[in-house]
Design goal:
CATH topology: Rossmann fold
Number of helices: 6
Helix content: 25-40%
Strand order of the largest sheet: 3-2-4-1-5
Oligomer: single chain
Low-confidence stretches: 1-11
CATH architecture: 3-Layer(aba) Sandwich
CATH superfamily: Phosphoglycerate mutase-like
CATH class: Alpha Beta
Shape: globular
Order of helices and strands: EHEHEHHHEHE
Largest sheet: 5 strands, mixed
Number of domains: 1
């Protein structure tokens, strides 16, 4: 299966290519698993080699992953092709849902939690023990702003952090960020720094 990717090629100078990990176990459909370290599906594992081949062709000078195994698998596959090493930065890990982690969304709703408040009150609402949307925004944005401006950086991350950075740099309000989540294995190209993303 060919992964969905942007047709954009990195330009001369610094760039950041953020890639969402490949598909997770289908048994997790309907389950809240943001910060939990869940497994890739058989298809997701099979897809890693194809995506890694395509990413290695871009010759990133820096490879980063979130530390969760579903992102580490792809990052290390790319690094192995290039004879390099991948490093970890937990600031690009998926959104932390606290006590909601690994519970079904329907169960969370029936327990009386207004899930939509995460988007409509991004500065103050969180799951018990979790983070707010703006807390994720702040850690992802801080990570982005610390990247070297002349690097060719590959970051294997998750739907939440990638859509958040797209939203911040594209001046999209938080309620629009869910529409910016890439598909499994899809990448988004960001120039460094102070510009809008493409792809």
């Amino acid at each position: 299966m060919t992964p969905p990717t942007s047709n954009e090629r990195p330009t001369v100078g610094g760039w950041l290519l953020m890639v969402r990990h490949t598909a997770v176990d289908p048994a997790l459909k309907g389950v809240c698993y943001g910060a939990s370290d869940v497994a890739l599906s058989a298809d997701g594992l099979a897809h890693v080699d194809l995506v890694a081949d395509q990413l290695a062709e871009r010759s990133p000078s820096i490879i980063i992953h979130s530390g969760l195994s579903r992102s580490r698998t792809l990052a290390e596959a790319v690094a192995a092709r290039l004879g390099s090493q991948a490093c970890v930065d937990p600031r690009i890990a998926e959104f932390n849902f606290g006590e909601w982690e690994l519970r079904r969304w329907g169960e969370i709703f029936l327990a009386g939690h207004d899930i939509a408040r995460l988007i409509h009150e991004p500065d103050r609402y969180s799951a018990p023990g979790g983070e707010t949307v703006f807390a994720m925004r702040d850690r992802v944005q801080a990570w982005y702003e610390e990247l070297p401006s002349d690097g060719r950086i590959l970051a294997v991350s998750h739907g939440g952090p990638i859509s958040t950075l797209r939203g911040v740099l594209g001046d999209v309000p938080p309620h629009g960020w869910p529409r910016l989540v890439p598909d499994y294995g899809e990448h988004v190209l960001f120039p460094l720094h102070d510009a809008s993303p493409s792809g």
